[in-house]
Amino acid sequence: MFPAITKSVCRSAGRDLQRTQLARHCVRFFNGFSQDELPVEETPAPRVLITGGLGQLGSGLASLLRKKYGPDNVIMSDIVNPPRHVRETGRYIFADILDFKNLQEKVVNEGIDWLIHFSALLSAVGEANVPLAIKVNIEGMHNILEVSKQYKLRVFIPSTIGAFGPTTPRNPTPDLTIQRPQTIYGVAKVHAELMGEYYHHKYGLDFRCLRFPGIISAETPPGGGTTDYSTEIFHDAVTTQRHECFLEHDTRLPMMYIDDCTRATAEVMELPEHRLKQRVYNIQAMSFTPAEIYAEVKKHVPDMEIDYKPDSRQAIADTWPQVLDDTNARLDLGWNHEYDLPKLVTTMLTKIRAQKEGKQGTSAQINAAAI
Ligand SMILES: NC(=O)c1ccc[n+]([C@@H]2O[C@H](COP(=O)([O-])OP(=O)(O)OC[C@H]3O[C@@H](n4cnc5c(N)ncnc54)[C@H](O)[C@@H]3O)[C@@H](O)[C@H]2O)c1
Ligand SMILES: C[C@@H](O)[C@H](N)C(=O)O
Protein backbone atom coordinates (compact mmCIF):
# COMPACT_ATOMS: atom_id res chain seq x y z
CA MET A 1 0.00 0.00 0.00
CA PHE A 2 2.79 2.43 0.94
CA PRO A 3 6.06 2.70 -0.98
CA ALA A 4 9.26 1.49 0.67
CA ILE A 5 9.85 4.08 3.32
CA THR A 6 13.13 5.90 3.52
CA LYS A 7 13.91 9.25 5.06
CA SER A 8 14.08 10.76 1.60
CA VAL A 9 10.60 9.41 0.78
CA CYS A 10 9.43 10.90 4.02
CA ARG A 11 10.95 14.28 3.23
CA SER A 12 9.41 14.25 -0.21
CA ALA A 13 6.09 13.19 1.27
CA GLY A 14 6.27 16.09 3.69
CA ARG A 15 7.06 18.46 0.81
CA ASP A 16 4.93 17.15 -2.01
CA LEU A 17 2.10 15.27 -0.42
CA GLN A 18 1.22 17.58 2.42
CA ARG A 19 -1.93 16.61 4.27
CA THR A 20 -1.90 13.11 2.84
CA GLN A 21 -2.01 9.89 4.74
CA LEU A 22 1.39 8.95 3.34
CA ALA A 23 3.02 12.02 4.81
CA ARG A 24 1.59 11.30 8.23
CA HIS A 25 2.52 7.64 7.96
CA CYS A 26 6.08 8.63 7.09
CA VAL A 27 6.39 11.04 9.98
CA ARG A 28 5.36 8.36 12.42
CA PHE A 29 7.53 5.66 10.85
CA PHE A 30 10.93 6.68 12.13
CA ASN A 31 11.72 6.76 15.80
CA GLY A 32 13.74 9.90 16.39
CA PHE A 33 12.37 11.51 13.22
CA SER A 34 9.27 13.07 14.62
CA GLN A 35 7.04 15.75 13.18
CA ASP A 36 8.85 18.19 15.49
CA GLU A 37 12.12 17.67 13.65
CA LEU A 38 10.89 18.12 10.10
CA PRO A 39 11.66 21.57 8.70
CA VAL A 40 8.53 23.73 9.07
CA GLU A 41 7.94 23.93 5.33
CA GLU A 42 8.05 20.12 5.14
CA THR A 43 5.78 19.42 8.08
CA PRO A 44 2.46 17.98 6.93
CA ALA A 45 -0.61 19.69 8.34
CA PRO A 46 -1.90 17.71 11.32
CA ARG A 47 -5.32 16.08 11.24
CA VAL A 48 -7.10 17.37 14.33
CA LEU A 49 -10.14 15.98 16.17
CA ILE A 50 -11.88 18.20 18.73
CA THR A 51 -14.17 16.36 21.19
CA GLY A 52 -17.01 18.26 22.85
CA GLY A 53 -16.64 20.73 20.01
CA LEU A 54 -20.11 22.23 20.38
CA GLY A 55 -19.35 23.71 23.79
CA GLN A 56 -18.10 27.18 24.61
CA LEU A 57 -14.52 26.62 23.41
CA GLY A 58 -14.76 24.23 20.46
CA SER A 59 -15.90 26.37 17.53
CA GLY A 60 -13.43 29.20 18.20
CA LEU A 61 -10.53 26.78 18.21
CA ALA A 62 -11.81 24.91 15.14
CA SER A 63 -12.05 28.18 13.26
CA LEU A 64 -8.49 29.21 14.20
CA LEU A 65 -7.00 25.80 13.34
CA ARG A 66 -8.92 25.57 10.06
CA LYS A 67 -7.35 28.86 8.98
CA LYS A 68 -3.91 27.38 9.69
CA TYR A 69 -4.31 23.81 8.50
CA GLY A 70 -7.20 23.88 6.07
CA PRO A 71 -10.91 23.21 6.68
CA ASP A 72 -10.69 19.48 5.94
CA ASN A 73 -7.98 18.81 8.50
CA VAL A 74 -9.89 19.99 11.56
CA ILE A 75 -12.86 17.86 12.57
CA MET A 76 -15.36 18.95 15.19
CA SER A 77 -17.18 16.26 17.13
CA ASP A 78 -19.78 16.03 19.88
CA ILE A 79 -22.81 13.93 20.79
CA VAL A 80 -25.50 16.42 19.86
CA ASN A 81 -26.99 17.51 16.56
CA PRO A 82 -25.15 20.66 15.52
CA PRO A 83 -26.76 23.90 14.37
CA ARG A 84 -26.71 24.34 10.60
CA HIS A 85 -23.88 26.91 10.62
CA VAL A 86 -21.55 24.34 12.25
CA ARG A 87 -22.09 21.88 9.41
CA GLU A 88 -21.71 24.69 6.88
CA THR A 89 -18.36 25.86 8.24
CA GLY A 90 -16.51 22.53 8.34
CA ARG A 91 -16.54 18.83 9.03
CA TYR A 92 -18.60 17.63 11.99
CA ILE A 93 -18.95 14.03 13.21
CA PHE A 94 -20.60 12.19 16.09
CA ALA A 95 -18.07 11.02 18.68
CA ASP A 96 -19.09 9.81 22.13
CA ILE A 97 -16.05 9.76 24.40
CA LEU A 98 -17.72 7.11 26.57
CA ASP A 99 -17.65 4.68 23.64
CA PHE A 100 -14.04 3.51 23.21
CA LYS A 101 -14.63 1.60 19.96
CA ASN A 102 -16.39 4.62 18.47
CA LEU A 103 -13.36 6.74 19.39
CA GLN A 104 -10.92 4.24 17.86
CA GLU A 105 -12.98 4.15 14.67
CA LYS A 106 -13.01 7.94 14.37
CA VAL A 107 -9.28 8.25 15.02
CA VAL A 108 -8.39 5.59 12.45
CA ASN A 109 -10.91 6.48 9.77
CA GLU A 110 -10.13 10.18 9.96
CA GLY A 111 -6.34 9.68 10.19
CA ILE A 112 -6.12 11.79 13.35
CA ASP A 113 -2.77 13.15 14.61
CA TRP A 114 -3.85 15.61 17.30
CA LEU A 115 -6.70 15.08 19.73
CA ILE A 116 -8.09 18.12 21.51
CA HIS A 117 -10.32 16.94 24.28
CA PHE A 118 -12.99 19.46 25.25
CA SER A 119 -15.85 17.16 26.34
CA ALA A 120 -16.69 17.75 29.99
CA LEU A 121 -19.33 18.67 32.52
CA LEU A 122 -18.32 22.02 34.04
CA SER A 123 -18.22 22.81 37.75
CA ALA A 124 -21.82 23.78 38.49
CA VAL A 125 -23.38 21.19 36.17
CA GLY A 126 -21.03 18.55 37.58
CA GLU A 127 -22.16 19.24 41.16
CA ALA A 128 -25.76 18.83 39.98
CA ASN A 129 -25.04 15.41 38.42
CA VAL A 130 -22.05 13.80 40.09
CA PRO A 131 -22.47 10.28 38.57
CA LEU A 132 -22.55 11.70 35.04
CA ALA A 133 -19.57 13.96 35.80
CA ILE A 134 -17.61 10.90 36.98
CA LYS A 135 -18.51 9.10 33.76
CA VAL A 136 -17.74 11.93 31.34
CA ASN A 137 -14.88 13.70 33.13
CA ILE A 138 -13.07 10.64 34.49
CA GLU A 139 -14.08 7.54 32.49
CA GLY A 140 -14.30 9.50 29.23
CA MET A 141 -10.89 11.04 29.88
CA HIS A 142 -9.43 7.54 30.43
CA ASN A 143 -10.70 6.60 26.96
CA ILE A 144 -9.06 9.71 25.50
CA LEU A 145 -5.67 8.91 27.05
CA GLU A 146 -5.89 5.26 26.04
CA VAL A 147 -6.80 5.96 22.40
CA SER A 148 -4.07 8.62 22.27
CA LYS A 149 -1.52 6.14 23.58
CA GLN A 150 -2.68 3.42 21.19
CA TYR A 151 -2.43 5.62 18.08
CA LYS A 152 0.49 7.80 19.27
CA LEU A 153 -1.50 11.01 19.11
CA ARG A 154 -0.52 14.39 20.47
CA VAL A 155 -3.27 15.06 23.01
CA PHE A 156 -4.44 18.26 24.69
CA ILE A 157 -6.66 18.08 27.77
CA PRO A 158 -7.35 21.45 29.37
CA SER A 159 -7.34 21.84 33.11
CA THR A 160 -8.77 24.75 35.06
CA ILE A 161 -8.62 27.04 38.07
CA GLY A 162 -11.18 24.51 39.39
CA ALA A 163 -8.33 22.03 39.92
CA PHE A 164 -7.41 23.96 43.10
CA GLY A 165 -9.13 24.10 46.46
CA PRO A 166 -9.37 26.00 49.73
CA THR A 167 -5.91 24.95 50.95
CA THR A 168 -4.19 26.22 47.76
CA PRO A 169 -2.35 29.57 47.93
CA ARG A 170 -4.82 31.84 46.08
CA ASN A 171 -2.85 34.90 45.06
CA PRO A 172 -0.81 33.96 43.19
CA THR A 173 -1.33 30.23 42.63
CA PRO A 174 1.84 28.57 41.27
CA ASP A 175 1.98 25.61 38.87
CA LEU A 176 3.11 23.18 41.55
CA THR A 177 1.14 23.57 44.74
CA ILE A 178 -1.50 22.00 46.98
CA GLN A 179 -4.47 20.68 44.96
CA ARG A 180 -7.39 19.58 47.08
CA PRO A 181 -10.46 20.73 45.08
CA GLN A 182 -13.93 20.33 46.57
CA THR A 183 -15.94 19.79 43.36
CA ILE A 184 -16.15 16.60 41.31
CA TYR A 185 -15.08 18.76 38.34
CA GLY A 186 -11.88 19.76 40.14
CA VAL A 187 -11.19 16.23 41.40
CA ALA A 188 -11.55 14.92 37.84
CA LYS A 189 -9.20 17.62 36.51
CA VAL A 190 -6.47 16.84 39.06
CA HIS A 191 -6.88 13.20 38.05
CA ALA A 192 -6.57 14.15 34.36
CA GLU A 193 -3.41 16.18 35.02
CA LEU A 194 -1.82 13.29 36.94
CA MET A 195 -2.93 10.61 34.49
CA GLY A 196 -1.64 12.64 31.54
CA GLU A 197 1.72 13.13 33.25
CA TYR A 198 1.82 9.43 34.13
CA TYR A 199 1.07 8.32 30.54
CA HIS A 200 3.81 10.66 29.37
CA HIS A 201 6.32 9.29 31.87
CA LYS A 202 5.31 5.63 31.45
CA TYR A 203 4.46 5.40 27.74
CA GLY A 204 5.95 8.55 26.22
CA LEU A 205 2.50 9.97 25.42
CA ASP A 206 2.73 13.52 24.08
CA PHE A 207 0.26 14.93 26.63
CA ARG A 208 -0.15 18.72 26.84
CA CYS A 209 -2.27 20.64 29.30
CA LEU A 210 -2.98 24.28 30.13
CA ARG A 211 -4.93 25.34 33.19
CA PHE A 212 -7.45 27.85 31.87
CA PRO A 213 -9.08 30.65 33.85
CA GLY A 214 -12.81 31.33 33.32
CA ILE A 215 -13.31 31.90 29.59
CA ILE A 216 -15.42 34.76 28.22
CA SER A 217 -16.90 34.57 24.72
CA ALA A 218 -19.49 36.37 22.61
CA GLU A 219 -20.33 33.74 19.99
CA THR A 220 -20.82 30.67 22.20
CA PRO A 221 -22.55 30.52 25.59
CA PRO A 222 -20.81 29.14 28.68
CA GLY A 223 -21.75 25.58 29.59
CA GLY A 224 -22.71 25.75 33.28
CA GLY A 225 -19.69 26.84 35.28
CA THR A 226 -18.88 29.10 38.21
CA THR A 227 -17.45 31.85 35.99
CA ASP A 228 -20.45 32.10 33.60
CA TYR A 229 -21.57 35.48 34.98
CA SER A 230 -18.58 37.10 33.26
CA THR A 231 -20.09 36.30 29.85
CA GLU A 232 -23.75 36.74 30.82
CA ILE A 233 -23.18 40.30 32.10
CA PHE A 234 -22.41 41.45 28.53
CA HIS A 235 -25.60 40.00 27.08
CA ASP A 236 -27.58 41.74 29.83
CA ALA A 237 -25.71 45.02 29.27
CA VAL A 238 -26.82 45.02 25.63
CA THR A 239 -30.42 43.87 26.25
CA THR A 240 -31.92 44.76 29.66
CA GLN A 241 -29.08 46.86 31.19
CA ARG A 242 -29.62 44.91 34.38
CA HIS A 243 -27.55 41.96 35.59
CA GLU A 244 -28.27 39.67 38.52
CA CYS A 245 -24.90 38.30 39.55
CA PHE A 246 -24.69 34.89 41.22
CA LEU A 247 -21.37 35.80 42.89
CA GLU A 248 -20.59 38.42 45.56
CA HIS A 249 -19.28 41.81 44.40
CA ASP A 250 -15.75 41.13 45.70
CA THR A 251 -15.16 37.57 44.40
CA ARG A 252 -11.90 37.81 42.46
CA LEU A 253 -11.25 35.10 39.85
CA PRO A 254 -8.80 34.65 36.96
CA MET A 255 -10.49 35.23 33.56
CA MET A 256 -9.51 35.20 29.88
CA TYR A 257 -11.02 36.27 26.55
CA ILE A 258 -11.65 33.32 24.26
CA ASP A 259 -9.27 34.47 21.52
CA ASP A 260 -6.37 34.32 23.99
CA CYS A 261 -7.52 30.87 25.11
CA THR A 262 -7.75 29.42 21.60
CA ARG A 263 -4.44 30.99 20.54
CA ALA A 264 -2.73 29.57 23.65
CA THR A 265 -4.11 26.12 22.81
CA ALA A 266 -2.93 26.29 19.21
CA GLU A 267 0.48 27.58 20.30
CA VAL A 268 1.08 24.88 22.89
CA MET A 269 0.05 22.18 20.40
CA GLU A 270 2.41 23.54 17.76
CA LEU A 271 5.51 23.72 19.96
CA PRO A 272 8.25 21.12 19.44
CA GLU A 273 8.06 18.65 22.29
CA HIS A 274 11.50 19.53 23.66
CA ARG A 275 10.24 23.05 24.50
CA LEU A 276 7.86 21.66 27.13
CA LYS A 277 9.66 21.54 30.47
CA GLN A 278 6.49 20.42 32.19
CA ARG A 279 3.25 18.91 30.93
CA VAL A 280 0.79 21.14 32.83
CA TYR A 281 1.03 24.95 32.83
CA ASN A 282 -1.05 27.74 34.38
CA ILE A 283 -1.99 30.53 31.99
CA GLN A 284 -3.35 33.87 33.15
CA ALA A 285 -4.70 36.98 31.42
CA MET A 286 -6.61 39.14 33.94
CA SER A 287 -8.30 38.82 37.31
CA PHE A 288 -11.33 40.85 38.34
CA THR A 289 -14.31 40.91 40.69
CA PRO A 290 -17.96 41.33 39.62
CA ALA A 291 -17.81 44.93 40.95
CA GLU A 292 -14.77 45.68 38.78
CA ILE A 293 -16.21 44.27 35.56
CA TYR A 294 -19.50 46.07 36.31
CA ALA A 295 -17.62 49.39 36.68
CA GLU A 296 -15.86 48.81 33.35
CA VAL A 297 -19.11 47.90 31.57
CA LYS A 298 -20.84 50.96 33.06
CA LYS A 299 -18.31 53.23 31.33
CA HIS A 300 -19.90 52.07 28.03
CA VAL A 301 -23.46 51.46 29.28
CA PRO A 302 -24.15 54.23 31.83
CA ASP A 303 -27.64 52.89 32.71
CA MET A 304 -26.25 49.47 33.61
CA GLU A 305 -27.37 48.13 37.01
CA ILE A 306 -26.24 45.07 38.96
CA ASP A 307 -27.72 43.08 41.86
CA TYR A 308 -25.73 40.52 43.79
CA LYS A 309 -27.65 37.31 44.59
CA PRO A 310 -24.99 34.70 45.39
CA ASP A 311 -26.11 31.09 44.89
CA SER A 312 -24.40 27.71 45.33
CA ARG A 313 -21.63 28.75 42.93
CA GLN A 314 -20.33 31.24 45.53
CA ALA A 315 -19.07 28.39 47.73
CA ILE A 316 -17.16 26.99 44.75
CA ALA A 317 -15.65 30.34 43.73
CA ASP A 318 -14.49 30.94 47.31
CA THR A 319 -12.16 27.94 47.03
CA TRP A 320 -10.60 28.87 43.66
CA PRO A 321 -7.47 30.95 42.92
CA GLN A 322 -7.71 34.72 42.58
CA VAL A 323 -4.62 35.01 40.37
CA LEU A 324 -2.71 32.24 38.56
CA ASP A 325 1.07 32.52 38.44
CA ASP A 326 1.89 31.74 34.79
CA THR A 327 5.61 32.65 34.85
CA ASN A 328 6.61 29.21 33.55
CA ALA A 329 4.21 29.36 30.58
CA ARG A 330 5.59 32.79 29.66
CA LEU A 331 9.18 31.55 29.88
CA ASP A 332 8.87 28.08 28.33
CA LEU A 333 5.99 28.48 25.88
CA GLY A 334 6.31 32.16 24.99
CA TRP A 335 2.77 32.67 26.30
CA ASN A 336 1.49 36.26 26.38
CA HIS A 337 -2.11 37.45 26.71
CA GLU A 338 -3.51 40.17 24.44
CA TYR A 339 -6.77 41.02 26.22
CA ASP A 340 -6.96 42.94 29.50
CA LEU A 341 -10.21 44.06 31.15
CA PRO A 342 -10.79 47.28 29.11
CA LYS A 343 -10.08 45.49 25.80
CA LEU A 344 -12.28 42.56 26.81
CA VAL A 345 -15.20 44.88 27.59
CA THR A 346 -15.04 46.89 24.36
CA THR A 347 -14.65 43.71 22.29
CA MET A 348 -17.52 41.84 23.96
CA LEU A 349 -19.92 44.80 23.78
CA THR A 350 -19.13 45.44 20.12
CA LYS A 351 -19.61 41.79 19.17
CA ILE A 352 -22.80 41.25 21.15
CA ARG A 353 -24.35 44.52 19.93
CA ALA A 354 -23.68 43.42 16.36
CA GLN A 355 -25.17 39.98 16.99
CA LYS A 356 -28.25 41.19 18.76
CA GLU A 357 -29.35 43.94 16.42
CA GLY A 358 -33.10 43.72 16.41
CA LYS A 359 -33.21 41.07 19.18
CA GLN A 360 -34.32 41.51 22.80
CA GLY A 361 -34.03 39.16 25.78
CA THR A 362 -32.22 38.21 28.95
CA SER A 363 -28.96 36.31 28.90
CA ALA A 364 -30.80 33.09 29.77
CA GLN A 365 -33.17 33.50 26.80
CA ILE A 366 -30.32 34.35 24.46
CA ASN A 367 -28.22 31.43 25.64
CA ALA A 368 -31.18 29.07 25.28
CA ALA A 369 -31.74 30.37 21.76
CA ALA A 370 -28.05 29.95 20.92
CA ILE A 371 -28.13 26.31 22.04
N1 LIG B 1 -15.21 27.41 29.52
C1 LIG B 1 -14.36 27.69 30.52
O1 LIG B 1 -14.42 28.74 31.17
C2 LIG B 1 -13.27 26.70 30.83
C3 LIG B 1 -12.27 27.07 31.75
C4 LIG B 1 -11.30 26.14 32.11
C5 LIG B 1 -11.27 24.91 31.49
N2 LIG B 1 -12.24 24.58 30.59
C6 LIG B 1 -12.19 23.25 30.00
O2 LIG B 1 -12.24 23.35 28.58
C7 LIG B 1 -12.98 22.25 28.05
C8 LIG B 1 -14.10 22.79 27.17
O3 LIG B 1 -14.94 23.59 27.97
P1 LIG B 1 -16.29 24.22 27.41
O4 LIG B 1 -16.52 25.44 28.19
O5 LIG B 1 -16.27 24.28 25.94
O6 LIG B 1 -17.35 23.12 27.90
P2 LIG B 1 -18.89 23.05 27.55
O7 LIG B 1 -19.60 22.56 28.76
O8 LIG B 1 -19.35 24.32 26.94
O9 LIG B 1 -18.92 21.92 26.41
C9 LIG B 1 -18.65 20.58 26.70
C10 LIG B 1 -19.15 19.73 25.55
O10 LIG B 1 -18.93 18.36 25.89
C11 LIG B 1 -19.94 17.62 25.26
N3 LIG B 1 -20.10 16.27 25.83
C12 LIG B 1 -20.73 15.89 26.96
N4 LIG B 1 -20.71 14.55 27.08
C13 LIG B 1 -20.03 14.06 26.02
C14 LIG B 1 -19.69 12.76 25.57
N5 LIG B 1 -20.07 11.66 26.26
N6 LIG B 1 -18.99 12.62 24.43
C15 LIG B 1 -18.61 13.72 23.72
N7 LIG B 1 -18.93 14.98 24.08
C16 LIG B 1 -19.63 15.15 25.22
C17 LIG B 1 -21.18 18.46 25.44
O11 LIG B 1 -22.20 18.10 24.50
C18 LIG B 1 -20.64 19.87 25.25
O12 LIG B 1 -20.84 20.35 23.94
C19 LIG B 1 -13.45 21.44 29.27
O13 LIG B 1 -12.54 20.41 29.52
C20 LIG B 1 -13.39 22.43 30.38
O14 LIG B 1 -13.18 21.80 31.62
C21 LIG B 1 -13.23 25.45 30.24
C1 LIG C 1 -13.37 27.86 35.29
C2 LIG C 1 -13.93 26.81 34.38
O1 LIG C 1 -13.37 25.58 34.57
C3 LIG C 1 -15.39 26.80 34.11
N1 LIG C 1 -15.78 28.03 33.47
C4 LIG C 1 -16.21 26.61 35.36
O2 LIG C 1 -16.55 27.60 35.95
O3 LIG C 1 -16.52 25.51 35.71
UniProtKB/TrEMBL annotation:
Biological function: Catalyzes the NAD(+)-dependent oxidation of L-threonine to 2-amino-3-ketobutyrate, mediating L-threonine catabolism.
E.C. code: 1.1.1.103
**Biological process (GO), any one:** L-threonine catabolic process
> What metabolic or biological pathway is this protein involved in?
Amino-acid degradation; L-threonine degradation via oxydo-reductase pathway; glycine from L-threonine: step 1/2
Q: Which GO terms describe its molecular function?
A: L-threonine 3-dehydrogenase activity
Q: Which InterPro entries match?
A: Epimerase_deHydtase, NAD(P)-bd_dom_sf, NAD(P)_epim/dehydratase
Which residue intervals define the domain NAD-dependent epimerase/dehydratase in the entry? 48-283
Known catalytic reactions: L-threonine + NAD(+) = (2S)-2-amino-3-oxobutanoate + NADH + H(+)
- Name-wise, this protein is L-threonine 3-dehydrogenase, mitochondrial
Q: Which organism is it from?
A: Branchiostoma lanceolatum
Q: Indicate the family of this protein.
A: Belongs to the NAD(P)-dependent epimerase/dehydratase family.
Q: Can you tell me where the transmembrane regions are? A: none
Q: Name one Pfam family in it.
A: Epimerase
Superkingdom to which the source organism belongs: Eukaryota
